[in-house]
Design a protein that fits this description.
The chain has one domain (3-61). The chain contains three helices and no strands. It has helices at 3-30, 39-48, 52-61. The longest helix is centred in the N-terminal third of the chain and has 28 residues, at 3-30. It is elongated.
């Protein structure tokens, strides 16, 4: 399979990944408090743990305001 075709197949996943990261980082920046109290740790989880990191933050990391 040519590399261009592989990129086209992966493009939707790449878009979803970057969208999730953007949403999670935007939400994190707006909140005053998060579970665990350490925003830097959440930034690392969101950015470094691909696909799962943003989902973990959005499901478990947000604290009620």
């Amino acid at each position: 399979m040519p590399p261009a075709r592989i990129i086209l197949l992966l493009l939707p996943l790449i878009v979803v990944e970057f969208t999730l990261i953007g949403i999670a980082l935007y939400d994190l920046a707006r909140r005053k408090r998060v579970k665990g109290g350490n925003k830097l740790l959440w930034v690392l989880v969101i950015v470094l743990i691909e696909f799962i990191g943003p989902l973990v933050y959005l499901i478990l990391g947000r604290e009620e305001e």
